[in-house]
Design goal:
heterodimer; A: about 110 residues; alpha/beta; Transcription Regulator spoIIAA; five-stranded mixed beta sheet; two-stranded parallel ribbon; globular; B: about 160 residues; alpha+beta; Heat Shock Protein 90; 5 helices; 5 strands
């Protein structure tokens, strides 16, 4: 059974919302991620978002929508979007979509 | 060697992963690279998602979590037809949904008719980037057919050169 994303995958550390993304990111699961991320961003007034791709083996353009949407919400308050554990496939998708210009990929 | 398959399934988001995994399984015996496999899965996912949320306007799937505005399911099927011929994969994803008024505009990167869904408007751009050929046939009320071609492994390239 494929692991689904749960509330435990959203964590606020200091000024960052860390989101541990699921194994597969598509439109079907995107709504849950967006809704919960936005709720926490509002509630805890968090400035930055870190997307953790460690478990992720598949992503389509829905993932781009998730990241772009969060970027729009925090960038006006000086927030930034980071990505960690980015493999070759995810990096390719970042490059094709131009997302590499707004997301900073961090080595951990 | 020519091999062919056809899939017809309900146009709900619950079936997005099923669709791409089924197409991936259909080509595994060709030993595609990790990259080729990812390209095909992404392209199929884009085409099928478009059919579901734009063609039939089924925005949230069966899920059963909670009924929200726009959460009702419109009946409809998505059809995937694959032909594998000497290392070249032809995929046709079609629906009988509402169709696209302006195909050229729909294919522009970042263009979306549903900005509230927070999708990126990159669906067709991804299909174009990850597949070798893309063709879209559609009209208002006529449904949409997306045809994609991908060469897999060295056989596909050799045959194509000839």
């Amino acid at each position: 059974m494929m692991e689904q994303i749960t509330m435990g995958d959203f964590q606020v550390i200091d000024n960052c919302l860390m989101i541990r993304l699921p194994e597969e990111i598509d439109h079907h699961g995107a709504g849950f991620i967006c809704e919960n991320a936005d709720r926490i961003l509002m509630r805890d007034e968090v400035q930055n978002v870190v997307f953790d791709f460690e478990k992720t083996r598949f992503m389509d353009s829905s993932g781009i929508g998730i990241i772009m949407g969060r970027y729009r919400k925090i960038t006006c308050f000086g927030g930034r979007v980071y990505a960690i554990h980015v493999d070759k496939q995810i990096q390719r998708i970042f490059n094709v979509s131009g997302l590499n210009k707004i997301v900073e990929v961090l080595e951990v | 060697m020519k091999n062919e398959m056809e899939l017809i399934f309900d146009a709900v988001s619950d079936n997005e992963s099923f669709a791409r995994v089924a197409v991936a399984a259909f080509i595994t015996h060709l030993n595609p690279t990790v990259e080729e496999m990812a390209d095909i899965k992404t392209a199929v996912s884009e085409a099928v998602t478009n059919a579901i949320i734009h063609g039939y306007e089924n925005l949230y799937g069966y899920g059963g979590k909670k009924l929200r505005e726009g959460g009702e399911i419109h009946p409809g099927k998505v059809r995937i037809h694959c032909i594998l011929n000497k290392g070249i994969l032809h995929i046709e994803v079609s629906d009988r949904g509402k169709g696209i008024e302006n195909v050229e505009q729909a294919m522009e990167p970042l263009f979306t008719t549903k900005p509230e869904l927070e999708r990126s408007g990159m669906g067709f751009a991804f299909m174009e980037a990850f597949m070798d050929d893309l063709e879209v046939e559609s009209g208002p009320g006529e449904g949409t057919t997306v045809r994609m071609v991908k060469k897999i492994g060295i056989d596909g390239w050799i045959d194509c050169e000839e």
